[in-house]
Backbone:
């Protein structure tokens, strides 16, 4: 093992094998496909949009489904054409799309000093050279990425090489006879942890990761509301100042117009394609044919996402006094084995490990000292931090007076009583009300009577009109309660 004074500058690339899977499922669009039924298929009765989509997914040549409010499910092939509909039907694809990406690299790649073996390079970091990762630098493209990561800048040339025992960077005119290869970066899919190579180049070394992160992805989907999130009804006055009727193909297009119009809070869409926009002062009126909805409705797709980070850092040096009371030197195979001895020894806070296998344990009073003998020191245990991302439920903002059962059913999901506690504080409500596109609430206050967290959308939520725009939070709720026709519930739908 070389002394600390000979350790050259190197940069570690902390790579983790993280796989991210994103499954975007387009929101079911209000409308239907024609012809209504593909060849060989007829109407069936299904419990939800999801069940109808499932039927399509398992039917040969089915590309789309159309689902009616009465439970009618019709399947269409790829030739079917979309048509707008005023009957409450929704249509969607047979399957969602899944994309999987694996982040590279997995090893902690380290650029070593001139002439150093990869065993030495990784050991200096309290890690070990691992043969499992040589294949990560087996192409010119990957070498180009890596040499940028470690701060080399552009290599003069990137060429294949299989003779040096590791991917490397030439740092001297003497790497080859005429000096033409200085600055060259060599890639190879094989390597040797123990080979010294040549004193004029620096190796890229794959050190086993000392920090491991396991993560799943939380996807937030921002989209227009599915048809069931629109309430049958209209807003009055019919048009906000400066706006008039436009002709649109669907409620979604009308909503899009509202979203791009300053101060538009609501839209109303007529069966003949008429689109009218209203500001926040507009009042709700019942209608059997017109649908109305907010400028923006966002579903938060929550998954139970836990990120666990385990960090182990070994420093070059040793702790003094050398041995804690009652403990003496032992012979261990690696720094990890020495650490394990410390972890199982009462009052041991640190370990020091020598290149000859000597292992010494220290208590919390021991002091770090620099060392030129190649020793490394570290804590008794790695540090583990676990964080759970909030929210876990798919929180959906319902329509005026809707039950959470109907709100979640429209998403092909079920209202779950397991998640009410996720909106039990003012801070969480403040975060959620921003997500659902309301903007700042007038006030955020506690409420336990509404059967769910909710947003007041009318001056009639309370007697004097002072609570309009209030956001109410509660740690309890009811999936079946209608609540009041002047507010919209936030509903926890099972992911």
Residues:
């Amino acid at each position: 093992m070389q002394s600390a004074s000979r350790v050259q500058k190197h940069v570690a690339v902390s790579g983790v094998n993280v796989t991210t899977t994103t499954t975007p499922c387009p929101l079911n669009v209000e409308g239907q496909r024609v012809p209504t039924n593909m060849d060989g298929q007829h109407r069936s009765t299904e419990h939800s949009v999801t069940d109808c989509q499932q039927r399509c997914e398992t039917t040969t040549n089915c590309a789309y489904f159309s689902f009616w409010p009465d439970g009618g499910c019709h399947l269409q092939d790829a030739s079917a054409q979309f048509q707008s509909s005023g009957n409450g039907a929704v249509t969607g694809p047979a399957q969602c799309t899944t994309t999987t990406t694996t982040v590279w690299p997995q090893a902690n790649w380290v650029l070593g000093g001139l002439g150093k073996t990869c065993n030495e390079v990784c050991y200096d970091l309290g890690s070990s050279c691992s043969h499992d990762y040589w294949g990560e630098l087996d192409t010119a493209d990957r070498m180009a990425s890596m040499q940028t990561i470690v701060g080399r800048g552009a290599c003069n040339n990137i060429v294949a090489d299989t003779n040096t025992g590791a991917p490397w960077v030439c740092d001297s005119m003497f790497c080859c006879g005429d000096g033409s290869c200085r600055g060259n970066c060599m890639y190879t899919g094989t390597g040797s942890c123990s080979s010294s190579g040549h004193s004029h180049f620096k190796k890229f070394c794959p050190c086993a990761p000392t920090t491991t992160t396991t993560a799943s992805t939380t996807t937030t989907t921002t989209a227009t509301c599915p048809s069931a999130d629109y309430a049958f009804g209209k807003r009055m006055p019919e048009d906000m100042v400066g706006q008039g009727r436009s002709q649109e193909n669907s409620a979604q297009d009308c909503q899009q117009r509202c979203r791009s119009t300053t101060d538009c809070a609501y839209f109303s869409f007529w069966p003949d394609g008429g689109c009218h926009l209203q500001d926040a002062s507009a009042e709700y009126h019942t209608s059997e044919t017109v649908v109305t909805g907010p400028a923006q409705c966002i579903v938060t797709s929550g998954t139970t996402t836990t990120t666990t980070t385990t960090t182990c850092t070994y420093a070059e040096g040793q702790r003094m006094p050398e041995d804690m009371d009652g403990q003496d030197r032992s012979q261990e195979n690696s720094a990890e084995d020495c650490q394990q001895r410390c972890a199982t020894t009462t009052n041991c806070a640190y370990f020091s490990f020598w290149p000859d296998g000597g292992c010494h344990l220290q208590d919390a009073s021991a002091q770090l000292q620099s060392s030129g003998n190649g020793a490394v020191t570290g804590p008794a245990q790695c540090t583990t931090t676990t964080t759970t991302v909030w929210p876990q439920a798919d929180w959906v903002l319902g329509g005026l007076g809707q039950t959470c059962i109907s709100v979640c059913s429209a998403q092909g999901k079920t209202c779950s009583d397991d998640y009410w506690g996720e909106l039990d504080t003012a801070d969480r409500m403040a975060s959620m009300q921003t997500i659902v596109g309301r903007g700042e609430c007038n006030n955020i206050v506690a409420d336990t009577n509404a059967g769910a967290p909710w947003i007041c959308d009318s001056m009639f939520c309370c007697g004097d009109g002072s609570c309009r725009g209030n956001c109410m939070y509660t740690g309890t709720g009811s999936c079946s309660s209608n609540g009041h026709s002047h507010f919209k519930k936030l509903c926890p739908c099972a992911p």
Remarks:
- The helical segments are 49-57, 118-123, 140-149, 251-259, 335-343, 404-409, 426-435.
- The radius of gyration is 32 Å.
- Residues 1-24, 211-229, 298-306 have pLDDT under 50 and may be disordered.
